[in-house]
Write a structure and sequence with these properties.
mainly alpha
Length: about 280
Amino acid sequence: MVTRHSYRWLVFLLLLILAVLFIAPILIVLMNSFKGQFSISGEPFRLPTKETFVGLLNYRNGIEKIDFVSAFAYSLFITVASVSVIILFTSMAAWYIVRRKSFFTKFFYLTLVFSMIVPFQMVMFTMSKIANVLNLENPVGIVLIYLGFGAGLSVFIFSGFVRSLPYALEEAASIDGCNPWQMFFKIIFPMMKPTAVTVAILNAMWIWNDYLLPYLVIGSKYKTIPVAIQYLQGGYGSRDMGALMAMLVLAVLPIIVFYAFAQKFIVKGVIAGAVKG
């Protein structure tokens, strides 16, 4: 018979195994980023030794080969701008949808929710053509495209949170003379902080690591980090594994740091967004 104490240990061991499985690939990439090319291919799971350790050589080579500084700047601008635009417009849209009940707002909400289940592969060629016609093939234009793709989930999360807010707060603000803009930015939006951070984390992780959309829209002219890393693979299958491992470490490091600082808001924000009105 399994006691409660034994059950807890089994759950702990299971979670520990899962944690190791998830963390192991990151540790392997980090470990190999300090090893030579042939050591990575021959002994990928072995710790660096005095003979295989190359220090920061792989990082220097990778930064020079893919112009990492430029790629980092493009990725940072696109991610920050896209997340900011998504949070601003979807929070306002969610507030309007919840508070102004009509056929239009219900249809608009259902359309946004439906967009969450449409695979990107179904619309990517049409989207690429429209981006070309509207001259959106640049870092600013792709921000608008990310707004469209990120609106569904973000409005869904924000709408759940707005439904949990007492309408009496808005009535009191209206009596005090607040117009809709003042009411939203001074009362509603500050209370959305946990949900806004959750939306920011989810979208930042997606946009920062996205490869396909930047590759289709802005191509090699404005290379983001995922697109730039792909250029480390040369012709006939040749690739600089050391530089590749080093650039992967630099690519995931910013989003890990951002997640570590903001993860405490995730559970609170998701729970607030799951409330039904």
